Every structure is written in structure tokens, then in C-alpha cells.
Amino acid sequence: MPIKMSDIEVGREYKAGNNQDRVVLGNAKKGRSKIVYASRSGKPGNSYNFRIVSEKGRFAKACYKIGQKLSAMNLKEIIEDTNASSLIR
User: Fold this and answer.
1) 3-class secondary-structure state, position 79
2) What is the tens place of the pLDDT at every residue in 65-79?
3) What are all long-range contacts of 73-79, with beta carbons under 8 Å and residues at least 24 apart?
4) Cα 19 to the chain's mean position, in Å?
5) Cα–Cα distance, 47 to 87 (Å, whole number)
6) Given 23, 43, 51, 65, which is the most exposed site by the fewest CB atoms within 10 A?
7) What is the pLDDT of residues 33-86, one digit of tens each?
8) Element (H or E) spanning 54, and its range?
9) For residues 84 and 25, is the Cβ–Cβ distance under 8 A?
């Protein structure tokens, strides 16, 4: 069952299909209803290495489980590692 759009929170991890973890990095500069998220696949030890701009509704439909809230330091590292700062408001 998909999560709700109201469940989307910056800095929180979510579980999507194909054993994919996603973390919301922030709201996108372009489009009020868009977010920027990073994803990783496979084992939780893998790093977040891919960032995507997505509609909130589409993100919510793809995710089925809400995970932990990341620390500000961990979130900042992921934003830097994925070169996403230019996409976030």
C-alpha cells in the first residue's frame, strides 16, 4: 500500500519496490509539487548514489514503507555525494 503525500518529509528514508531505499533531500527549485530524492539499491550498506526530481504524488505511489529520520549531518553528506544542492530550494 503506497504512503500518503502528507507522509513525505525531508530527511526521512522510505522503502520502494525492488529493495530500493530512498531519502527525501528537499523541495525542488522547479515546481511546487516536486521533491528531490536520492536512492540506493541492494543492501542498506550501499551508498546513496543517484538523485532524482519527482512529483510528490508519484514518489508517494512508489513508496510503501516509512523509515528512519536521518541526522542533519547524514542528510548533508548525501546531498553533497549526489551533487543535489543546485536542485533544492
Assistant:
1) helix
2) 999 999 999 999 999
3) 75/10, 75/11, 75/23, 75/25, 78/23, 78/25, 78/38, 78/48, 79/25, 79/26, 79/38
4) 14
5) 20
6) 43
7) 999 999 998 776 788 988 999 999 999 999 999 999 999 999 999 999 999 999
8) strand 50-55
9) yes
